[in-house]
Amino acid sequence: MDNKPYLVQMSGNGVHGKSTVNAKSLNMTGVSGKGVHGNGIHHVNVNGSLYPAKAKSRRQRWEVKPSHMANNTLNPIRAIVDGMKLTPNPDKPMIALSIGDPTVFGNLPTDDAVLQAMKDAIDSQKYNGYAPSIGYLKSRQAVANFYSCPEAPLEAEDVILTSGCSQAIDLAISVLCNPGDNILVPCPGFSLYKTLAVSLGIEVKLYNLLPEKSWEADLQHMESLIDERTSCLIVTNPSNPCGSVFSKEHLQKILKVASRHCLPILADEIYSDMVFPGCHCPSMASLSSDVPVLSCGGLAKRWLVPGWRMGWILIHDRNDIFGSEIRQGLVKLSQRILGACSIVQGALESILNNTPQSFYNSTISFIMSNSEICFSELCTVPGLNPVMPSGAMYLMVGIDMDHFPDFKNDVEFTERLVTEQSVFCLPASAFEYPNYFRIVVTVPEEMMVEACGRIREFCQRHYRPRSRDSNDLDQ
């Protein structure tokens, strides 16, 4: 018999379709029923030897390089912080006001009802396997029920569960944008938007937020950035890093811009309902009459469990603009990984329905109190201009750099603050907004007071009046 190769399609695991040639009849040895290449197709000759279907690689040496996506992935926070020389003062214990994790210091535990829901889910032994890629139907329905309102009704089919709000944002950007498109992102804003977009070949255009207007969006600037390749407008409300909360009227003005340009909105609402008393924060979707909205949220901040990695996308499809294609696209993207933790999904209905209002109120009361302490302490420090927040868990502080000639920028300012006072605040250059720094206000109250005192001492040491200020003082 000659050695002419034959195409053999095997039966067995990993094989689709029927065998065209029986391997046994060819007296093959050492070949199992599993497809070697994963598709059940083998190139064999009649004496049983196997060889690859493709020509032998011509690569003469090892050359393994990271993908373009990997090379294009950059977290601005890490890029700045990793380059800082952070050597705390050994005589003062470190106070980190830089990490957006409310659990770090242990003073803000989640509610007992949340823990019990998780314990019950584990004890049930019902959630140890794979969940559907978009989440259990019962869990999605629970989220839909929790967030549905007459102005923006939701059903289970409108909810996709994700591995934290970060994955929700990733899926939303990925389904709406192609390489070469651009998205509008608030400045200052959460750095992950740029990290995700740029890695996908999507341009980021920054629209300004105005500190003098409690960080409202500069609508004229926003609209001037829109062109035919703009595929998404991101609105973060309440805001990280600003702690601001947009009014109903301001949200309606943003919606008018989006409507004029037929632009869908990605609403990052992870801090939804984390607003101070007297402040109202309607969802973007509840105010929209025509603009479709993908709202991203999760358990991380309001329920104080960021490590549980439970997020969601709420699909508000005004006038069936998204249609079936965007929904199907989100499902397909969710299938890249089996995202949300099945145990947390099992606990989700109980978490949403049984967490007492007193828990939410207590968290907000604490954050508001710390914000007021921080603001009142720092607004009397020469050279600093804090902006009082209305929600979330952050406060932004402006630095009048002309009064601090020892430092070139906010990065050097915050770096030296660590060296001298062991207080670490995140320079706002990480949010592409120089000469500010962000404070996380979830630390214990006594730590907040101590940190503000050290910041005051630091500023008093380095503050220099302007020359004209000196002249004014002489007169």
Describe this structure in words.
34% of the residues lie in helices and 15% in strands. By secondary structure, the chain is of the alpha/beta class. The protein has three domains: 1-54, no CATH class; 76-106 and 357-464, Alpha-Beta Complex (Aspartate Aminotransferase, domain 1), CATH 3.90.1150; 112-354, Aspartate Aminotransferase, domain 2, CATH 3.40.640.10. It has an eight-stranded mixed β-sheet, sandwiched between helices. It has a four-stranded antiparallel β-sheet with strand order 12-13-16-15. Strands 1-2 form a two-stranded antiparallel sheet. A hairpin with a 6-residue loop joins strand 12 (384-387) and strand 13 (394-399). Helix 3 (112-124) crosses helix 11 (342-354), helix 4 runs parallel beside helix 11 and helix 5 packs across helix 10. The protein is globular and about 70 Å long. It starts with 5 loop residues before the first strand and ends with a helix. Mean pLDDT is 89; it is low at 1-44 and 470-475.
